[in-house]
Amino acid sequence: METSQILNSTVQLMHTISDINSAAAILNWDQETYMPSGATATRAEQISTLETLSHQFLTGAEGQAIAGQITGLNGSASKHPLLTLFMHDFERASKLPEDLVRRTSRAQALAQDTWKHARAEKNYAKFLPALAELIELKIEAAERYGYTENRYDALLNLFEPGMTVAQLNPVFANLRTATANILSAIAPNRDKVSDAPMLQQYPKQQQMEFSRYISGQMGFNFDNGRIDLSTHPFCTSFSQYDVRLTTRINENDLHSCLYGVIHETGHGLYEQGFATDLARTFGADGASIGMHESQSLLWETIITRTEEFWSFALPKMREIFGEMVAGFTPRDFYQAVNTIQPSLIRTEADEVTYNMHIILRYELEREMINQTIDLKDIPELWNTKMQENLGVRPAHDGEGCLQDIHWSFGGFGYFPGYTLGKLYAAMEWNVLQQQMPDVRTKIANGDLTPIREWLRENIHKYGRTQKPAEIIQRVAGKPLTETDFVEYATKKALDVYGG
User: Fold this and answer.
1) What is d(CA 326, CA 140) in angstroms, rounded to the nearest whole number?
2) At CA 41, angle to CA 40 and CA 47, rounded to 5?
3) Confidence grade of residue 185 (pLDDT, cut at 50, 70, 90)
4) Other Cβ atoms closer than 10 A to 467
5) Is residue 296 a contact partner of residue 263, using CB atoms and an 8 Å limit?
6) In terms of C-beta density within 10 A (0-12 exposed, 13-18 middle, 19 or more buried), how is residue 327 classed?
7) What are phi and psi of 485, to 5 degrees?
């Protein structure tokens, strides 16, 4: 059979599978936004059916036939990015029996609802049975996927291809040391910087108006996307042409809505930026969680926390919020959004101490998957690590081990991607400044489109057809390192606090 015929058959099957996955994603989005609470059990079955059907199409007779044809190709023909992706996903999916896929999908859908209630009630014990079931399912999957050194590697590889515990441990150790050094350096001036400008009573409607404006300036296409409210901010995509963002609003803290929207817009720009010929294929996805996070964090923690950004944004704030921001300067907001203060909640943490939140979660779930800790001890282990790492201790499970949704949707191996995203973002920022020397002037003028286009040309358009290690090597000219982030974070901290 001709290579073109095999490619056409592969793409057609990808279209079918991608459509099924998009339908499941719509149901997940609806579950987090508008679904009535009484529909949880039925929704779990619906999502389970669709995800099982997707697995059947990929690993069934047609998928097996296509995999055989691709395997029979010689030379460069077999290296086509979409054929390579198909083989990767086919071989991975084939390791899981259909029953495990169905049980896992159903358990995850039910666990998300259980987590919501447990979090609201600040009651870890209520979530424990669901967590235990998910851990068992993920261990079974890890064993079937296979690994060389650490069981957790099998799950980590799902979100960050090629990454291992052995690679992460020294990087995280260096970040732990760097965090302590930065906190020590700014300690004498800690009380001289305040985030008070962000903590006024900002009306909900105006918060959303301002946040939506910034999202549009970043280049988010609202003809192909929308913003809604949810318990936990997220971005989901049903195609490049239908990307959904959510945020949450705290009337007494502008951070939550504004930076939630900016973060999710970063994800949304990535999703909207895939090359058109990747639509409805396995290539229309981020290269990894870490690379996806870098697209959010470059905007959220670097670009929109510069003093130049606030020179542009403050006049619009005055237009929307009026007198309440009349007395502030761009420097006031620059310092306010870059305060460094150990806190309990990951999503509200500053960019320096944030990594300690990720390291904590990584260490706990690594041990959960390796069965070296008792699940009933998670709250106390969590609280102790928070005290040791950041000097704060949760008062209850809601602001402790129940604060994140990730374990409830089975995202074991996901959390490290957040910190990897910071490392990628710092490397990308260094290259962007070199290749676009007037980038800070553009930011001050609100001219953010060139930044989006640079990202689209260098990262977005490739989707999942290149691995994260290949992308960062091509863009930055070197492999992943924590050095760029440490240098960037240290320099900014000293600028904000003096020293």
Assistant:
1) 58
2) 85
3) very high
4) 16
5) yes
6) exposed
7) -65, -45
Vertex 105, ends 99 and 106: CA angle to 5°?
90
CATH code reported for the domain at 165-497: 1.10.1370.30
* Span between the terminal Cα atoms of the chain, in Å: 68
- Of 24, 21, 26, 29, nearest in space to 232 by CA: 29
DSSP states of 275-343: -GGGTTSTTSS-S-HHHHHHHHHIIIIIGGGSHHHHHHHHHHHHHHHGGGGTT--HHHHHHHTT-----
The dihedral through the CA atoms of 140, 146, 147, 153 has a sign that is: negative
- Here the tokens at position 357 are 């939140």
Query: Is 90 exceeded by the pLDDT of residue 74?
Result: no
**Rg, C-alpha atoms of the chain:** 23
Residue with tokens 């930055």: 476
142-180 tens-digit pLDDT: 999 999 999 999 999 999 999 999 999 999 999 999 999
**Are the CB atoms for 199 and 324 separated by under 8 Å?**
no
Encoded tokens for 421: 């995203």
Which two three-digit tokens encode residue 468? 């994260």
Q: How confident is the model at residue 90 (pLDDT cuts 50, 70, 90)?
A: very high
Positions marked catalytic: 264
For the sheet with 225-229, list strands across it: 225-229, 242-247, 235-239
